[in-house]
Fold Aspartokinase.
Amino acid sequence: MRVVAKFGGTSLGNGDRVNRAADSIADAVNEGHEVAVVASAMGSTTDFLLDAITFEADEADEAEIVSMGERTSVRMLKAALGARGIDAKFLEPGTEDWPVITDEHGQVDVEETKRRAKQLAADMAAKGYVPVLTGFLAQDHAGNVTTLGRGGSDTTAVMLGNYMDAEEVVIITDVEGVMTGDPRVVEGARNVGEITVDELRNLSFRGAEVVAPSALSYKTGEMVVRVAHYQHGDLLDGGTKIEGQFENLIDMREEPLACLTAAGRAIRNTPGVLSDLSAVLADADINVDAVSSGMDSISFYVDAAVAERAENVLHQAVIDLNEVSSVTVDSDVAVLRITGGEASGQSALLEDVVVPLADEHVEILDLITSATSIAVFLEWDDREDALELIQDAV
Ligand SMILES: Nc1ncnc2c1ncn2[C@@H]1O[C@H](COP(=O)(O)OP(=O)(O)O)[C@@H](O)[C@H]1O
Ligand SMILES: N[C@@H](CC(=O)OP(=O)(O)O)C(=O)O
């Protein structure tokens, strides 16, 4: 089996851990597996190096300085593997067969990286050595060092796993896998065993960076991605299995929504109005599809079929609450949701969604963005055109 094994900073935090990592790699190689290793900087070296840049440094100098963390790790691991009789070779930006190529801003050149990764896979299979690659680092077309951004070693590993046709990518870290909560914070966190990419992307975009969110978009359906503890010892077993394939999804709600807006100038200064209005809808067993709020209003999107009932219960609430003056309904609203790896803080994706609609004068009634999705609310009659425009753009 071809495996890409990524060792995070914590799993290479000291000499003992480097030895442990080398033992687990050597065991897998001796069992007959083809292993490519991706290494992060030891412990918190990257933070240390970045903190030490207390002067004006341009992007290129910063990348060169910070690269020393990963460059050290691959030399350590290569030597530790050599001590175990394993033929290992370290690869870093600048080495002839280095695979990860980006533009000068760190955007991956997919075609070139794919080509080089496939070549590397063929070479390691033919010659039987273990490549030990610097995670996080890349090289631009002019040969300068670039980075894939903080936490980028996970991306290196899952991307290379994908392009090298690996059966499995193992992310070795300091937790037993994806847990029910951050074990550094909550007590009694348990390993979830299995999790889908979709579930994990919602977690990782929100801080559970046990796998960096940018890595998940490289997960294919066939390739297993596993997260395991460095103390476990066995590269090929245990931890949490991440299932499924990452997709940019565009979803159009099949039934129309109604938008109920409660307005009142006191909303901005009064705690609990959202809670009170949500509670009356919940008491009436009305599901809320989405909520958006402004300074003086709160809008609830509900299924059009229950709009009248929703309007009545909200109207009663308006009468009961001093802070809200009036409620109004806009019927026949469509919603398109775009969910994907690029959604998080990516102004480019937002632009891809909004600009084509604006160019064609399709009115956007509301836009709700979260870390992992963009919801566009439109007139019901505009939905087909909007879907086509967005599908072409993203
Ligand atoms: N739900 C969760 N499950 C597991 N780990 C979590 C979760 N949420 C946050 N974490 C944190 O993620 C950390 C692992 O990521 P990271 O520090 O980037 O490791 P590495 O240095 O190995 O790349 C764990 O130490 C843990 O504190
Ligand atoms: N060393 C880099 C890249 C990385 O992915 O590190 P880790 O795997 O330790 O999170 C960083 O700290 O951002």
